[in-house]
Amino acid sequence: MDPPDKPGDDKRDNGASVPLDRDQKHSSGETHMNVGFIGLGIMGAPMAGHLIDAGHTLFVYDVVKVPEALTAKGATACASSAEVAKQADIIITMVPDTPHVEEALFGKGGVAEGLSAGKIVVDMSSISPVATKGFAQKINALGCDYLDAPVSGGEVGAKAASLTIMVGGPDGAFDTVKPLFEKMGKNITLVGGNGDGQTTKVANQIIVALTIEAVGEALLFASKAGANPAKVREALMGGFASSKILEIHGDRMVKRTFDPGFRIELHQKDLNLALQSAKALGVSLPNTATCQELFNACAAHGGSKWDHSAMVKALELMANHKVAPDA
Prior knowledge:
Helix content is 49%, strand content 12%. It has 14 helices and 9 strands. The strands form 2 sheets. Strands 3-2-1-4-5-6 form a 6-stranded parallel β-sheet, sandwiched between helices. Mean pLDDT is 92; it is low at 1-28.
């Protein structure tokens, strides 16, 4: 996991550009925007790239070196999150966890130091819904709007600009930022107020985890019974059990391709959010807890950075049988 956002010695500052009018039209006829993007990892880099390709001006920052592919396209690398916020009208964060967002926004050299009234802060990370509401209040106090807009679709969706984006925040800010969302995703929904986007993402991660577990159990059962798991998966894809997870992660389980993807350690983080929130709400999530324990077992065997489809390995250990031989 990346360290909290702070200025790094390896940053390149290409110089401060004068922000253009947010309402200026570029050649495509769409509204040009000055956009800040903080967090340029597996997901953030391709997402930022789509915005540049769409003709928007980008100011970028990451605690690790800004990808050369982005600066080659014309992105301006900044020395801090505050500098990004000074230059951009809309500032997007895409970092691993709640403490990283807090540091990026309110730490030394953070976004809050560079904001002026009327700007919009958009957090596309997957973090605590409760913390999100607090972050929004602090940003609102500075005269700016806040959107929480976590995504689903993983690295594949980020590269293909086909992410599902779940948004919480005011209608006006959503309408302003929606053209940017449309360059990064396909299914874009304003769910409700601040925090509701993050709540939706937690719900998404519950469903994904439980479905991975179900697919793992089914293929393990079929394999142990002597059936060809690849053929079983193929047959199930034509019935009511069909799902994206059976299609993609079931294939990973059969072919033993567990390179991420979406790392187990990140899904553990998301299920922690689910279980902590459920405790606060007085809700029992027994099967979510089971999936978390299976992820914990994988992590104990050195699998924190495996793709989350590798949850099946924990089931395989208990059965003393693999869905398919390792490649």
